[in-house]
Amino acid sequence: MLRGTDRGEYGHMGNFDILSDKEEIVVSDVANRKIIHYSFDGELIKEFPVDFGMRFFKLGKLGGPGDDYTYIVDAANMVSEEKDQSFRNFHIYSKDMELLASYIPFEKRSSGIFGSFYHFFNTLEDTVGYYKPWSDSIFRVEGMKLQPIYTLDFGASIASKIGDVMSNSNEKYVFDIVYLEDKERIYLRYLYDGAGYLSYYHKSKGKSTTYMNPREVRCIRPLSTYGNKVILEGDYYKIPCLKKLLGNCESFPIIEKELDKIGEDDNNFLIIAQIMD
Length: 277
What we know:
mainly beta; 5-stranded mixed beta sheet; 4-stranded antiparallel beta sheet; 44% strand
């Protein structure tokens, strides 16, 4: 996997996803406007051009077991050159990039996030969960349909545009929402009133738990799930938030001892945690 403009090379990796059953890594190259499939060994399998900078996408099998994968795309500010699609900001494409469906359930085309694609796409068995940035809604992509499933309520207004966050008004907004979901829980990281929060919701119990870190951008971030566990990403400044989160677990004394070894100049770290509630 080399950077460049030739076949098999990428200019700027917008994001990537993994086809585990095919042992392929799929890369969105927004600089050269193409999708590239690599083997796990980094060898080129195939590539094809796309007519817009497909920065935010997720691969999903939407028709049930045995069906082939599709590309589920939040086009953000990008405009497709396909006829009659320039105003639609959510697309589903076949594995050969044939347009299967487009939706316009949102008032704004802008994705408007501070970060990467994994903030709002999530693989859930035979479907895909999707959080629309600047909104209060989590959706499911089921078959070729986009269905609203959950409405978020933080007890405060969610910023609907970047201007809300940057304004000098007295009203405070929730913003920079990171969404992660597995079979049992929904995890949300968000910023509000100068602090970072990590919240998780147990679906079957209808129970929510929230942790706060007063350093705004330093709240621990849910990165992915692994079976019934969640993978958390952190650095030196996120350790206080992490200690609050893990303080009641049996192995915390061991974890705390290792966390205290981390210095300000150390790299980021990952922790695999099983939430017990």
